[in-house]
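WARN no homologs supplied; continuing
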Amino acid sequence: MRIMSRESLNMVYHRPECRYARRICKKNQIRMKWEDAERKGYCPCKRCDGIDFLYKMEKEKIEKYAEQFHIDVDFKDRKIYVRTDAGCWKIIYKIRSQKFILLHRNYVNGRIDLEDADKAPFHRQGDMSEAGSIMKYLRYIKEHDEFKQNAQKDYRKLPQDTKRHKMYYRTAKKREEKQSAKRLDALFLLIEKQEGIKKLSCC
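OK structure emitted
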């Protein structure tokens, strides 16, 4: 829900946590969903509808979670960078939908420095929809990258408790099957070459 004033000339709506919303006396308060407010001609408050404000709201939880699971989370240039031993991620905020979007960087080998985070392209993480919470993405990232690391060891030991787990399991299994097929092809090719060498030596 968003809050606006009946007497507002600027036609601005605020999040309930915004200090400007708290200044509106109760008798003048109007409450409605932000989509409805937009349709009525209101626009978002620049203070409480930016990524800066939303990051501060969750900052304490973010820092505790990052410390607990050894994740690097940095707020830089109005973007949130998340780095683990298996991946590099970026969280951005879309003011039009008032939701966060999760982006993933390919080809990360170990934990990279923050300065190097934007030196390769990111792609939208397809199995993760827009979210209203940074913490929701951090939990996803932890699970995703732990799964990725375990899959490299032995996919058969991966959990299959949730739909996402099962999807990752199938992906890891297919990857291992393809790699096994390539190794087998390479082995047959090596055997054929050796057989060919034996035939030549016999002649």
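The radius of gyration is 25 Å.
OK
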